[in-house]
Structures are given as structure tokens and as C-alpha cells.
Design a protein that fits this description.
This protein is an alpha+beta fold and about 230 residues long. The chain contains 5 helices and 9 strands, in the order ββββαβββααααββ. The longest helix is centred in the middle third of the chain and has 18 residues, at about 135-155.
Length: about 230
């Protein structure tokens, strides 16, 4: 059975990436400056069109590799949402599958072929100027930030921002940066060390944070936090 391709509207599928990491104690997002129209010169999330012969998740990992030179072992990657407003892209009907990627100590990015530059920028700074972002990327970034904020309440995802071994103080810095709050150190220590399967003591201590030697931990086997660690208290 044959069909007439001209009867179907022209559209494309893209991937957009909300890539978050901590730099100097601030939650930062990976941004590019567009080097071509539409929106030449404006800021945007990294991403691009999917190839005809690749899966959506393959396209997401390809873009991560091209923009920031990281692979599947370097980030926690999950699908965020799908965005398909009819006029979100002036070129044609474009449906974007957005992804949230979280990683620790991610490297300096390298601009891809269609970007003038790529860099890390504090999320709060970006969202204070949402109109500087192309397309609907401010909306996507807000959704990615809120997903990250929610997930570290109920899951162990916060450890994705930490090195393999970390202190409770370093983990607290993650929560403070993602939630944009100050947390009581003693109360936080009690909660995270009391959550079943969240942290495992290594038996080693470090003075890299200054002060008395602090216990080093690594991520435990749990995927969900019980009890959860809530922003509200």
C-alpha cells in the first residue's frame, strides 16, 4: 500500500537539553549563543534536530557529547517533557523532546557547529532575563529546574551533583544551590544520614572543606528517599 507524502504536514523532531551542574557553589545551566537564524545572537539551551536513523535518547546523548564532551557515565539523564506548540519555531512545525541532565564537575563546554559560543551561567541569573532566551527555552529551563528541585526531595538524585566520595557538607551545598535556600547544618546531617540507604560511610575523613576532618560518604543503593527531605521543613 502506498501513500501520498504531500498530504502530511512537514515537521521535525528536536532534542533540547537542560544540563545542570554546580560551579563555585552555584547551580549553573549550560547555554549556547546561537550563531545562525532564527534568533541569531540570542541565548538558547543546547540541542538540535534528530537524525532520521537515530532514537530520541541517542540524539540527546549525541548532543551532550558534542557540546560538553560527556557520556552516559558522566550524567544522570532523564526525559523531561515534550513541547509542541504550533509556532514555537518560526521555521516549521517542530516538536522538541526535552531532557534533564545532572552531573558533577562537568567540563567547560565547546560550541557546536551552529553555536557562536557555549558556557555555564547561574540559573537564577538566566531566569531573571527570560526574554534573552530563544524559542520557548526559558519555559523549558524553568520546568527542568522545578523537576530537579522536586526530585531531590524524594529521590537520591542529589548525589549526581557530587563526586564519587563527598561529605555531608558538600551534599548540603547541592541542596542549597538547587533549592536556593539556607539549610541548618545539624538538621540536614540528621536527615540525610537517617534516610535508609542514602549514604554509605567510606571510613575515611577529609579536611578539604576546612575545619575538623569530615567523614566521607558515597551514594548508597537506595533510589528513593525514606523519609523524604522536604523543602518545607
Amino acid at each position: 500500500m502506498t501513500y501520498d507524502a504531500s498530504r502530511y504536514p512537514r515537521f521535525a523532531v528536536t532534542v533540547d537539553l537542560v544540563v545542570l551542574t554546580l560551579r563555585d557553589g552555584q547551580l549553573c545551566a549550560l547555554l549556547i549563543r546561537r550563531g545562525a537564524e532564527p534568533y541569531a545572537g540570542k541565548l538558547a539551551l543546547p540541542g538540535g534536530f534528530t537524525h532520521l536513523d537515530e532514537d530520541i535518547d541517542t540524539a540527546a546523548y549525541r548532543e551532550l557529547q558534542e557540546e560538553v564532551n560527556v557520556g552516559p557515565d558522566d550524567v544522570a539523564l532523564e526525559q523531561l517533557m515534550t513541547y509542541g506548540a504550533p509556532k514555537r519555531d518560526p521555521r516549521m512545525r517542530v516538536v522538541s523532546v526535552a531532557w534533564l541532565a545532572l552531573g558533577a564537575d562537568l567540563p567547560e563546554p565547546a560550541a557546536g557547529s551552529d553555536a557562536a559560543e557555549a558556557f555555564w551561567m547561574p540559573v537564577n541569573k538566566v531566569l531573571r532575563r527570560p526574554k534573552e532566551l530563544a524559542f520557548d527555552h526559558a519555559h523549558i529551563l524553568r520546568d527542568g529546574l522545578e523537576r530537579a528541585r522536586n526530585k531531590i526531595e524524594y529521590s537520591t538524585l542529589a548525589t549526581a551533583f557530587c563526586s564519587r566520595e563527598f561529605t555531608v557538607g558538600e551534599l548540603r551545598e547541592v541542596y542549597q544551590a538547587v533549592w536556593d535556600v539556607e539549610l541548618d547544618s545539624r538538621n540536614f546531617h540528621r536527615k540525610v544520614t537517617g534516610a535508609e540507604g542514602f549514604l554509605i560511610e567510606t571510613g575515611e575523613r577529609t579536611t578539604r572543606g576546612g575545619g575538623r576532618p569530615a567523614m566521607l560518604y558515597r551514594a548508597g543503593p537506595a533510589e528513593q528517599l525514606y523519609p523524604p527531605i522536604l523543602r518545607t521543613g
